[in-house]
Each structure stands twice: as C-alpha cells, then as structure tokens.
Amino acid sequence: MKLILSPRKPRNPFATAARLRRAGAHRSGHAALRQQAGRELRREIERLRPSP
Questions:
Q1: Could you give the C-alpha distances from 24 to 10, 18, 29, 50, in angstroms and in order?
Q2: Is the pTM of this model over 0.85?
Q3: What residue spans of the chain are helical by DSSP H?
Q4: Within 10 Å of residue 37's Cβ, how many Cβ atoms?
Q5: Residue range 18-52, pLDDT digits in tens
C-alpha cells in the first residue's frame, strides 16, 4: 500500500514578512477613539463644575 500525500498549499510571503516585523494597526480603532472622547468630556465637565 502506497501513501500519497498532496503538496502543501504555498504560504503567503507577505504574511510572513508582516509577522516578522510585528506589523499591526496604524491607529486606534473606533471604539478606542470613542472611549478617549468620553474620558476627555468627563474631565472637561469636572473642570467646569463649580467647587463647593
């Protein structure tokens, strides 16, 4: 009985290069930007609130 193996699918050369140089997102996502805007708004409200 002969075992026949199909050749492996070739790997994506761009994915390997990106992984080696630790590529990632270039800027924050939408959720992070919304959270940051909310924090800034809360800080501004606290700053404008009159002190007792």
A1: 23, 8, 12, 43
A2: no
A3: 13-20, 30-48
A4: 10
A5: 777 766 667 778 999 999 999 999 999 999 998 77
Size of the chain, expressed as the number of residues it contains: 52
- CB–CB of 36/28 below 8 Å? yes
Q: Which two tokens stand for residue 41?
A: 């708004």
What local confidence, expressed as pLDDT, does residue 41 receive? 97
CA-CA distance, 50 to 16, in Å (whole number)?
Answer: 56
Alpha carbon distance 48, 37 (integer Å)? 17
Please state, in angstroms and rounded to a whole number, the distance separating the CA atoms of residues 29 and 10: 32
Tokens of 16: 């390997």
